[in-house]
Amino acid sequence: MLIASGLMLALGATTALPQAIYHLKMNDINGQYVSLEAYRGKVLLVVNVASQCGYTKQYAGLEALYRRHREQGLVVLGFPCNQFGGQEPGSSEEIKQFCSSRFGVTFPLFEKIEVNGANRTALYQTLAGKDSSFPGNIKWNFTKFLVGRNGALLRRFEPQTAPDSADLIQAVEAALAAKP
Fold first, then answer.
1. Beta strand 33-35 with 43-49: parallel, antiparallel or unpaired?
2. C-alpha distance from residue 130 to each of 11, 27, 139, 166 (Å)
3. pLDDT (tens digit, 9 = 90+) per residue, 114-162?
4. The pairing of beta strand 74-80 with beta strand 43-49
5. Which of 12, 13, 87, 89 could disulfide-link 50, Cβ–Cβ 3.0 to 4.6 Å?
6. Which residues are tagged catalytic?
7. What proportions of the chain, in percent to the nearest 5, are helix, strand and coil?
8. How far is Cα 60 from Cα 104, in angstroms, rounded to an integer?
9. What's the pTM?
């Protein structure tokens, strides 16, 4: 497991993550090993997702946001998580089928992960660990982290912030407009 401490540099209100986030490798929803290096230079919206949650309808908003801004460099990364009320019990194939058939999801999905506790993935150690600009346990599914083109952790949005909220859209658009 990659330890995030010591790999981040403070930049005002943001945290630079390039060394920490881009060196991580995760399994995508098809079980393929993916280096997050592939997303360098993109604006990332990292979201822990679930299929049986009151916020599950946010998949539609995340997909709409992705389609609207992907040509400008936005990538939504969905990480299924079953830590909150067992709301993501399915297999990778079931999750992929659900997201595709119900919400037409085309943004990258990954295998189930843990975002809190002893088995918290290195990605979430970096995003929400003690050295993050936005530390603390993830409270529920559909918590969102915005990462700038230069790897800076820009914002954390709690689950109740919908993908079509003015605050989130404004933050995404500002990140897309910023120089790397």
1. unpaired
2. 16, 25, 15, 29
3. 999 999 999 999 999 998 999 999 999 999 999 999 888 999 999 999 9
4. parallel
5. 87
6. 53
7. 30, 20, 50
8. 8
9. 0.89
